[in-house]
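Lab notebook: predicted structure, single chain.

Context: the supervisor wants predicted structures on file for every construct in the current expression panel, including those that have not yet been purified. This is the next one on the list. No modifications to the sequence; it matches the entry in the shared construct table.
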Amino acid sequence: MRTTEKTLTPKLVKKLWIAFILLILLMGSSYIFITGYLTHKHNQAITQRVNANVAEHVIQEKFQNTAPFLEDGSVNKELFGDLMHDMMAVNRSIEVYLLDKTGEIQYSVVLEHNENEPSKSVSLAPIEAFIEKGGTEFVLGDDPLNPEESKIFSAAPFHIDGKEGFIYIILAGKEFQLISDNLLGQYFTKLGIGATLLTMLFAALIGILSIWFLTKNLRLITQTVRKFQEGDLDIRIANPEASDIEVFAHSFNEMADTIVDNMDKMKSVDTLRRELIANVSHDLRTPLAILKGYVETLQIKRDALSEEQKQEYLQITHENIDKLSKLINQLFDYSKLEAEQVAPIKEPFSITELSHDLIAKFKVLAEQKSITLNLDNPEANCMVFADVSLVERALQNLIENAIKYTEIGGKVTLSLLKKGKNIEINITDTGTGIPVNEQPFIFDRYKQVNKSAKKQGYGLGLAIVKKIMDLHDTTITVLSKPKEGSSFIFNLPAYQL
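Prediction complete. Output recorded below exactly as produced.
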């Protein structure tokens, strides 16, 4: 008993797992980064909103009784020293700057204790935007100590003793930045560890569910394919439209139908091949037996036979050799057509001239039976686009067949008639005709409608004609009534000069 096999290979499952884990890790990393970034911005926005009026309060409280400038116009450094001391006692991250109306830095205590080269001015655009919105919107301004960075700030204008400018306060100075970076690093570490563990857990759960869900239809299709492989040729994937991989399901069903159809055709071909071999063997046996009999008679009685008898025996032998030759040629031709080894080489040619040549060729054979052989061609010249050698072979078989089955004194007519974009070719005889019940089968391989000794045929002529018509993408039809003759009609595309 065969054991149950896995429908999915470990390699496929491994690839799916890796894909899902990488996807979840990427999502987790993106989540951590976005969360940290937005959290940092959120904290900055809150800090700025809470301290939006700090600069205004400084102006109202400190500049009320003491001017920020001395009588000589210089900055009151003592005032700003006390101011910075008072504010840093509350918040060590605050940095206070005195700006003129152009944004030039007039004074700041932090600048006197800074080793790096600070900026000498601050951009007024963020300050003006902040003041215009009353500190209700999140705005970043220049950091004089770190010109390449932007910080949250509070700002307010002043007009004292004829001097104008701004009090510009950095709410998150250098010390704040150091503390923030340290805490943010710790936060990211904790968040990263937690997110990694959660990611692994969710990746496992999502991976298991996703692989099961995504491969559900694949497992079903794999089982169906395996049953088909084991010989259940009728099995198909049910409701392929409902499958997650509809294209593959349809493709398998179509492939299975094609395989089964080809197998049926192969069986049919094999059956017909056996019938063909049996029929051909019979037809080969008859002329061979006749040849052998007459040759043996000539060998045994050559001295007792008269010259007339010898000539008669030789004539019979010659006729049977011709029969054998024609039969073998037909077998070769049909085999090539059946194996699709013949490809039509289409070209424009005159079907009228070809018909005249064939009429002349079969004239002698027709006269031997007192049969009238005519060409009915109302057009001056009919040109077609086809393979001239194949069309010639088809017409030869049809004319020869018509002469063979037409009684002495009968008539065979080859007519050409232009109909639209086609030329209709019609071979009509006044012969014995074909029974209606046998007409659908006359183009089958080796089908003979008349088994009488006189009309015994090779059984391949009309089958070859049918194959030639197939190569030209056209059809041939037969119109016949018993004792009233037959008409074989087909069309070829007309060639426009």
